[in-house]
Amino acid sequence: MAILKALAITAFLLIFLGFVPSIFRYWWAGNSDNISQFLADTVGIRFKEPYTLVRLHDAISMGYQTVAFAIPVAATYFILERRRRRLGQRGAEPVKGYLPGK
Fold first, then answer.
1. DSSP for the chain?
2. Does residue 34 lie within any of the structural domains?
3. Which residues have a Cβ under 8 Å from the Cβ of 82 and sit 6 or more positions away?
4. What is the C-alpha to C-alpha distance for residues 31 and 23, in angstroms, rounded to an integer?
5. Rg (Cα) of the chain, in Å, rounded?
6. Residue 57 belongs to a domain
7. 25 in a domain, yes or no?
8. How far apart are the first and last CA of the chain?
9. Is 102 within the bounds of a domain?
10. Quick check: pTM over 0.70?
11. Cα dist. 95→54, 78, 87 in Å?
12. Residue range 43-98, pLDDT digits in tens
């Protein structure tokens, strides 16, 4: 059962951390002229370098990937912390008497 859960979590993370940004990249590349015009109309600044749109896309993709990675990590921490408290287990405490003179 644990192996199936691990495989499901791995597949979920691969899809949402790798596949979705890749789809977004292909969509962005196909519609870069429309996006540039939309941004020029909205912000009022026309981008002179085409590489500026690539940097903007990379910032959006990395922001998405960071959030999509942080949510499962935070959820895992909170779920396991609640489990630890419910079971009455001790947390990470420093080892006493490990260093000489203390």
1. -HHHHHHHHHHHHHIIIIIHHHHHHHHHHHTHHHHHHHHHHHHS---SSTHHHHHHHHHHHHHHHHHHHHHHHHHHHHHHHHHHHHHT-----PPTT-STT-
2. yes
3. none
4. 12
5. 23
6. yes
7. yes
8. 45
9. no
10. no
11. 50, 24, 21
12. 887 877 878 888 888 888 888 888 888 888 898 889 888 888 888 777 666 666 66
Show the tokens assigned to 1.
């059962």
| pLDDT of 102 over the 60 cut | no
| CA 101 distance to own-chain centroid | 44
Per the structure block, which two tokens stand in for 94?
Answer: 């420093």
* Full domain range(s) for residue 59: 2-87
Number of domains making up the chain? 1
**47 and 39 Cβ atoms separated by less than 8 Å:** yes
Token match 């002179």: residue?
A: 48
